[in-house]
Amino acid sequence: MRAIVAGLIAIAACGPPEGSRHGLKDDQPIDSGPVDTDDVDGDGFQDDDCDDNDATVFPGALEVLGDGIDHDCDSDPNATALAWATGLTGARGPTVGASTEHYVLTTAADTYFPDYTDVGISLIFDFRATGQQAPREDVIWTGASTEEPLGPQVDMVTFGENFFAVGNYYRPSNAAWYTTTVKTNYDWSVEAFKRTIASDYHGPGGPFSDTSARAAGTELQVASCAPDTVQVIGITANDVPFKSHTDVHADILGEGGEHCGLQMATPGRSVLHMGGANGIKSWDVDFGNETISLAPDQPFASLSANNIRISKQWIVIASTTGVTLSDESGGADYLVFGGQDIADADLSWFEGNAVLAAVIGETLHLAWGPDPASFTEATLSGVTGISGVSIYRDADRVFVAVLAGPDDIGWMFLAPPLLGSAPT
């Protein structure tokens, strides 16, 4: 872990931090000098305030998704200007989530400033982040100064005030591809995240084109897939280093896919959805017996996949015909953004309400609501050049991160839409 250095973040637009209209922290005194009597709503802005009768509207304000009001005065009522990380080349698509006290954005890159090559990076944000909030720290979780090229995708799972970051790399010394799983804990004594343990596993096959990780309780499951092979690893984790490894890669040589999503069914068992342009196959994974077998039900065999994500019990498939959302708990399947070629998509649920992010023609689109059959949809017209996306939502924020071009990782924080009732 190292502290954020000057120049890490390029902010497209800036405003006061959350909880203050004057750019001050909540516990700092406010200068009681002359008051601008022309600031009708008292939000600290006058000339650039696009609605001086509404104190929630001012440059840099937190945008509220779907309320139709342009809170931050950027002419888009559904989005705010993206903040961008600097110093990256060859960035991988981001994945976002939250620990108990922080938001986390995990990615990887060929280089990160002059000092780091083939590196995995996580950016840490405080809760109640504003629209273009800068991270409080960055964590280097793999690489740093190596000649071991990384794979094209990373994934992450969070639990408590910790997270697991997962990726792949190639080790020239023995000509093998590895799946690396790194546990990072929050150290309360120094108020920062620290890498605590790493686990590397290699089997036959690779290079890997995608990776997927899921966790429940003390069990972590990781899949790495390539067009002709896949390896699946089961890890039991405690607060101490990993205490067991179970690899189940051997039975699936000769099968594979460009994309994969690992769905934890019960402890010790999962379903791996894997495929690409020629359809998706689903595999039953039994970690206890170290077996992988083709599942009897193949609901996505004919679906051309540009990407596969898992969000709780939901399978999210970005395809040439829209975003397919499949509820594996026994619910229906839904098609969102039907008829559109979706480059990437991600979904996040909170208390029966979802937000879906999709990349259509290098433009970011959002859809939200309690029922995927009747989502509200919006195009974020000011967010273009996008190739990848990840989204997370909780009670306070919608956290969106994007990959743009070969090098750029950007993000925004929005206030979530009003909560509704869960679908029946």
Concise summary:
The chain contains no helices and 31 strands. It has strands at 2-3, 9-11, 83-85, 88-89, 95-98, 102-112, 116-126, 137-144, 155-159, 162-171, 176-187, 192-202, 210-216, 219-226, 229-236, 244-247, 259-266, 269-276, 279-286, 291-294, 305-311, 314-319, 322-327, 333-336, 342-350, 353-360, 363-369, 376-384, 386-393, 398-404, 408-414. 46% of the residues are buried.
Assign the structural class, choosing from mainly alpha, mainly beta, alpha/beta, alpha+beta, or little secondary structure. Answer: mainly beta
> Termini, distance in Å?
45 Å
Helix content: under 10%
Tally of helical runs: 0
Largest sheet properties: 6 strands, antiparallel
> What is the arithmetic mean of pLDDT?
81
DSSP E strands, number:
31
User: What characteristic shape results from the CA principal axes?
Assistant: globular
- Percentage of residues in strands: over 45%
Computed Rg: 22 Å
Which regions have little confidence, pLDDT < 50, spanning 5+ residues?
A: 1-36, 239-245, 419-424
How is the topology of this model organized?
Blueprint: E1 2-3, E2 9-11, E3 83-85, E4 88-89, E5 95-98, E6 102-112, E7 116-126, E8 137-144, E9 155-159, E10 162-171, E11 176-187, E12 192-202, E13 210-216, E14 219-226, E15 229-236, E16 244-247, E17 259-266, E18 269-276, E19 279-286, E20 291-294, E21 305-311, E22 314-319, E23 322-327, E24 333-336, E25 342-350, E26 353-360, E27 363-369, E28 376-384, E29 386-393, E30 398-404, E31 408-414
Antiparallel strand pairs: 1-8, 2-3, 3-31, 4-6, 5-6, 6-7, 7-8, 9-10, 10-11, 11-12, 13-14, 14-15, 15-16, 17-18, 18-19, 19-20, 21-22, 22-23, 23-24, 25-26, 26-27, 27-28, 29-30, 30-31
